[in-house]
What we know:
It contains eight helices and five strands; from the N terminus they run H-H-H-E-H-E-H-H-E-H-E-E-H. By secondary structure, the chain is α/β, with parallel strands linked by helices. The longest helix is centred in the first third of the chain and has 18 residues, at 3-20.
Amino acid sequence: MTFSSVFCAVVWVALGPLVFGCSAKPAAAPPELSQVWSAQLAPKAALSVPSVEVARVAVARPWQSAPLEFLSDEAEGVAIARRERRPMILVFFAKWSGVCNQLEQQTFSDPEFRDRAAGFVGVRVDMTEEESPTAVAAASKYHVRGLPTALILDSMGNEAARIEQFVGPETMIAMIAKVQ
Length: 180
């Protein structure tokens, strides 16, 4: 029995169920591998191979069920979205804008929209004070031409959609569905 035969058997036993979704013992193993399995590896494999269920739990993304909360700091929202690889809704608004207020009252407060946007990082950049350096910098960074402007960014930070007018909750839900 060579070292490479034993090594291959150990790798198959340890990683086969996780990577290939197969049983721990190969079905059509060569006779010598079968002997190695029964004599040397079977007792150890039963103790060292994690179950497939444990592996599935490890890849769950808990943020996907987090409710949509809007932050006011664009840099903080971007940092969270990058760190957690989450999509983002970035809204530029002003309190004096009737269309911005309509978007807030009819679209962003809609229960179905909020439910569907769970898992997104939400950021509202307040442009009410036109001289705010952080708001002006963020507007320049995202090429905002008017208010309201809502950007939907994918989990890599790429712009997936741009909204520069009022849209109802149904339209916004359809746009975010393409990103998730």
